[in-house]
Amino acid sequence: MKIPLLRRDYSRPYSLKYQLIVILFISSLTPLILIGSISYFSMYAILQNKAEGGVQSNLHQVRISLEDTIGQLNHTSQQLAFDGRVGKNLESYLAADYYEKKRLNDDIRSELSLIHFTNPTLGLMFYYFANDNQKLFENFNVRDDDILKLPVLIRFDKITYYGPHRSLNPIDGNEVLSILRKVELPDRDDVYVYIETNFKLAESIIKDNDQFGGHLVHLIVDNNGKVVFSENKTDFPIGSSALSAKMKEAASEDYYMFEETSNQSWKVMAAVPQSVYKQEINRWIKQFALFAVLTLAASGYLAWLIWRTVYRPLNVLNADIRSVKHNYEHFPTRQSHISEFAVIYREFADMRGRIFELINEVEQKEKGKALLEVEKLMTQINPHFIHNTLDTVRWLARANGQRDIDRLVSMLNKVLYYNLGKGGPARIRDEIEALRHYVELQGIRYHFEFDVHIHANPKALELPIPRFILQPLVENALYHGMEDQGAIEVVVKEDGQSHVIIEVRDNGEGMTQEEMDRLVLEDNPERKMVGLGIGLQYVYRMVKFQFGAEASFHIESTIGSGTTIRLRLPIAKTELVN
Known about the structure:
Helices cover about 50% and strands about 20% of the residues. By secondary structure, the chain is α+β, with helices and mostly antiparallel strands. It has 3 domains: about 15-215 and about 275-315, Beta-Lactamase, CATH 3.30.450; about 330-375; about 425-575, Heat Shock Protein 90. The longest helix has about 60 residues, at about 15-80. The radius of gyration is 60 Å and the shape is rod-shaped.
């Protein structure tokens, strides 16, 4: 049985240099990717914790500072309300006559100056009468703005805290915190005390705690979730809800958000731009990318050095292979200081010797095949002359009344006509008919009786078969061990769908193994030339050359018990045989 070999067709071969570069790049990239991934996640976690801790610390400081400022505003406003000394003077001032008002006015302003002096974090302060929009005892000039429209941070029953807003002092213009507290007067319920922080206090509270170089965006959100202060009014407009979908979308796309809630429910929030937040991470990525590029460049250089190291031995090996291709029989002995190439050179030399031995073997086989063809052609030399001569002899014998000669020549002519290839492709039926003529001719020729029994499967009679197969097998039985009253049995049967089996058995003397070997030995000078001078050795070589391993030829013989020749031929390929 022949087992087909599976071969891969490399339609796009790659050079060793290219493969070395790819392999070294992969071997370099693999640890880089692993180390880079581990380092990235570790660095990201460290830097994220650092940044997040910094922002949370910033928010905590801002919240504490704002709560302290609000507490100071509350304490100061309490002194100016009704339960304080200044508040009591205000009640007297409102009920006094002109001269008394003058004195109380001086006392109140003096008290306000003292309070302002002892609290340097405070700025503008005055009393506000809501019904007539009147402002009294202000320590600085006041803009004519509606106080009730300032951004509310916290609102209690009698106290309203305003988030960072522009100072009501026209010469200030900075962001301040303020408080509006109702003054308890028996006769009026529209009197309030208004106090602001001093210049830039609110701004200094926020800016002094920014470790991101001014990129941190601070927000102050009231207890209702509304933004009352924003350092970036475009992305986080004042008055918008900190929980709105629009603000969440803007924050998630461009910012990281942090918050801290005070004990009065208002919040301090910080928005960090993602680019700033990841600045240190991006710097580390750039450094690692530069290191990776240098590593890959070194890998490429190493690949080039390795390629240069193996290029010369491979070039020599390529030259030797080309020499074998052009059938050069003389080769120099190759040596290499690289042990692997030294082994390859030695193995290639052995393989090269084996190749030329196989070539010589193939040449000898081809010569044998050519000899077979010559022998076959010799049997077909001038067949017309032979047939015409035999026909002449047959007619002369018939004319002279020699019926035995006429019959003998007629049988001989039929056998020669078939064996010399006349009549086109043969079938098993034709081969059996020619065999019958041959047996009859041999019986007339040698004047002894022998029986030939032919058993053929009717389905096998129409199968194609090489011409001149059965006769040499029967002829061998006649000339090796057959005596008078011998018997020959011919069996033809199918072997599945692909092969046909032909067996020729006799009951003669049998043969030894040496005798059987000599029958099929091509170069045997003692081989007897029988019949047409071809014999059993012709059948053996014909089967070998035409069908190869798909056919089989076996001889079994036992001394004193006869001989059996078994021939197994492929059915499909016999179609090509004439």
